[in-house]
Specification:
255 residues; 8 strands; globular
């Protein structure tokens, strides 16, 4: 491990609270690598999270200032911190349930205001920590603790939601491709304005075991095969795009 990255990790926080096979550990490593490559000073950064599996990524793992806040209120706290100290590089790291369901209004209004912060949403398509309930991102037909016959409600496309609300940088990547993910996280953190990155992360414990994925590796393979770059998607019909997830840089107002 890079010595600089090693110094950014709170060694006392290991082993991590993540389940075996959870993609959030990959995301945690990608965020730290992006910060190291940008040569940012952690003392000038603030990491904010809500409640849920992904909220444990910065706190307690990062040797930095962190706010572990109320469920759904991460962006509200982050907004207050940024307004109080505009020099802070504010990064919100939380889950799809926390940011898009319980905290949905905070997400759209921070995007509308183009608040200068980076929001990283670890999307595992389910409420992983609180029992495996259906989330606003759960795919149609998927089994959860609250949809034993399959989800019948269409999920949010979080990137389209953020774009429509006014986010000036929007991107999506799976943890299955960490190198492009790191490049995107670097761009998002360097962006001036509201940057939203959706990171697709498998949950083998709550989602995988209910939806016929025998192993975490099977989930990673399925995730990788379902993703299609925005460049390749441009030349395909809507029929060809069925079942595919468009990944890459979707909005960059600075270009």
């Amino acid at each position: 491990m890079n010595e600089k990255i090693f110094q950014m990790i709170n060694q006392e926080a290991f082993p991590t609270p993540f389940c075996p096979g959870c993609g959030h550990g990959i995301l945690m490593g990608a965020i730290l690598r992006a910060i190291a490559e940008l040569e940012y000073d952690l003392k000038q950064m603030l990491f904010v999270s809500g409640i849920g599996c992904a909220a444990w990524i910065p706190s307690p793992h990062f040797k930095a200032d962190t706010l572990h806040t109320l469920h759904g209120r991460a962006i509200a706290y982050a907004t207050g911190a940024k307004l109080y100290n505009p020099k802070l590089k504010v990064v919100v790291i939380s889950g799809d349930g926390d940011l898009s369901s319980i905290g949905g209004n905070h997400l759209i209004h921070a995007a509308r205001r183009n608040m200068d912060m980076t929001v990283i949403c670890a999307n595992n398509s389910i409420y992983g920590m609180t029992g495996g309930q259906m989330a606003s991102t759960t795919p149609l037909g998927s089994l959860t603790a609250t949809t034993p016959k399959g989800n019948q409600e269409p999920p949010f496309d979080l990137c389209k939601l953020a774009e429509a609300a006014g986010a000036t940088y929007v991107a999506r990547h799976p943890v299955a491709t960490p190198i492009p993910l790191i490049r995107t996280l670097k761009k998002a953190m360097a962006h001036q304005g509201f940057a939203f990155v959706e990171v697709l992360s498998p949950c083998p414990t709550q989602f995988g075991r209910r939806n016929a994925f025998p192993t975490a590796f099977a989930m990673i393979k399925a995730l990788k095969s379902s993703c299609l770059s925005v460049e390749k998607a441009k030349n395909l019909s809507q029929e060809d795009l069925l079942g595919k997830v468009i990944v890459g840089e979707l909005v960059n107002a600075n270009i």
